[in-house]
Amino acid sequence: MSEGLVRAAHDVLIVGGGAAGLRAAIAIAETNPRLDVAVVSKVYPMRSHTVSAEGGAAGVIADDDTLDEHIYDTISGSDWLGDQDAIEAFVHEAPRELLQLEHWGCPWSRQPDGHIAVRAFGGMKKKRTWFAADKTGFHMLHSLFQTTLKYDAVTRYDEVFVTRLLVDDGRVHGVVAIGLFTGKIQAVTAKAVILCTGGCGKVFPFTTNANINTGDGMSLAYRAGAPLKDMEFVQYHPTGLPFTGILMTEAARAEGGWLLNKDGYRYLQDYDLGKPSPTPELRSMELGPRDRLSQAFVHEVEKGRTSDSPWGPIVHLDLRHLGAELIDAKLPFVRELCLKYERIDPVHELIPVRPVVHYMMGGVHTDIDGATPLEGLYAAGETACVSINGANRLGSNSLPECLVFGARAGRAAAEFASTAGPAPAVVEAQAADEVRRLERDLLAAEPGAERTSTIRQEMQATMEDAAGIYRTGPALTKGLDRLRELQDRVGRVGIADTSRSFNTELLAALELANMLDIGECILQSGLQREESRGAHQRTDFPGRDDERFLSHQLAYRNADGTVRVESLPVTITRWPPGERIYGR
Amino acid sequence: MADSIRLEVTRYRPEGDSGPEVQEYDVPLRKEWTVLDGLNHVKDEVDTTLAFRWSCRMGICGSCGMNVDGEPKLTCATFLSDYAPGPVRVEPLANFPIVRDLVVDLYDFMEKLPRVKPWIIRDDDLTVIDGEYLQTPEELDAYKQFSMCINCMLCYAACPVYGLDPEFIGPAAIALAERYDLDSRDRGARERLDVLIEHEGVWGCTFVGECTRVCPKHVDPAGAIQRYKLKAAKENVMAFLLPRGAR
Question: Do B57 and A211 touch (CB under 8 A)?
Fold first, then answer.
């Protein structure tokens, strides 16, 4: 290949350095130490959004718990859309992965005798959520990152943004990426690529997600021809701070917090979630699943029982009865965040909260080993959809999902890379094309009439209108029309920043293009799912329709850029579809 | 409260001939806005070319450290209203090379961090089948504070020693070494001391304590450095008295 265009060749290249990506990297290094692993991330790995996860990670360890109960909770939580073979594998492997993290130094909270402590969590019938106070994701990420430092086989490309997958005849051979430091655009080839770029909450205006959660890996896969699965399922977390969208962890309710409407009434009792009791009851009331709690909020708004804030209607999270000692021991970050960003102390005051976009159940379609339909391409973590989360993820299942499927994808990619040949010469032309696209269409273009931030704001407003907690066919159709207009306009965005060094304006434009693709997939998939299931609630189709829709939806990109949705059966092993029952 | 506040922001392009310059921007002064919100207002509405890092906007990812009125701060956790009526100086973190505008080069820290071996070291690695290493809440408390480091680099920006001697391994790396030393599961203290006992290890520190003062997560790197100095001094005495094999 020509000098300079291909920077390096690796055996396995991982895009993203959060929990899934780093777990995959270690799995590869341990599976076959001769393999050369690269982790390419647009931020330093310890900045990845895993860092913001608070409440905990589920894995059966308590004496009174069983694997089957965790499996059933996850399946019923998913509204029977999760694949039961994947859920079984996940639940079996989660405790082992969490123990592995313990051996790698994760400071899990402990019982007095030194064993792992577990807490309750929403939708879980037993206490099985491991936690490191309420900074679980932070501690997991730093433990993983620091552990990767001891593996010489792992090469990091920090602050390098992948713009395209190199694909030849359905086989992935690497990436083209731009180094933010210098602006240099180069190809990095690999025998296998694993996408671990997290979610895409920034498609919406109000989200717990970080600035970096722009769905890059989903978009890379989608443009390369891999389908995105179950994209209509967007999780609204019931408790975000009103202005910032900062997450108030579900652990606050697991430790005994209450949700109150403006009359101080625990309103969840009116929504078939059980009866209030002074102490938390599992799978009941405040420990119901997130989809049902967020939907209850909307009904409270309709009944006029919420309070007003400058940022719309709110309810309150009440922790006052828990006392300072418990809050400081189990929920110190909640207190820190409230003091800092709301200037209130939850020991004495009510916390204003409202539902906030938190997590994508959907993602790149993979099998149980993280393999996508494109040969050599794998995905894991929130980027991927295996699917264990179906129509609604249970809190504390996503962190172990990153570990279990990060490790599985790592092992599968390692095995594939051990026998695969080097990239064919043809990918060099693709790399050259991509360099031209970035150089000519973006960097060298005259500053255009459109601005990235304006289109991004319009996209976010469109998504909230069309794909909120409740949806309708006409609103989804209108949203799709609007996104196609924005797709046209995004072509007229120019980059005013002419520096090659740390050109965040270029980065934002590339991220916006990724998000517009994903937004279309969410809306098109939502339009075609004419039923209500889990987090996808259609007021024009209010019931679950197993006859027509007990199936995944795969969104493919057509040649003209539009979305084509196909269906795929759900895997049922031992748990036939039933009613989701909480609090009774 | 006035309805706007002036930011005096450092601008720098490596392609230019000149060094860093200051550009002024007036941004809305709202009580819930952080310095980062002000910068994002500039980026979205005023000047798309301004470059800075940020991500979580909740004080945990460690990306958005800058010097605000001369003091290293997480800009997502620093409120504009605390600087009213302004102006507010927003500069890249001190003691690091500037890459562009408010973005500094962290290469030095990323290279130093692995040197202190910030991972669990043991000879007798249990397999996960054997279960967890027991650790009581008291044993957890022994190192917990040092495990809260978010690698935001405010302590390096505040450290006068690091400013003068870039070879100094620095506060966060030493705090993380201590985090593992104090972890009841770890057996690597000896290996880490071998690194930190070197000249550029802990000895550079003159105990100014700025690192601990500016830490947004209440980690005490200065305390960690003092403990290592004691350990190292003791080690030197032992080295004088006993051959290495007997230690």
Answer: yes
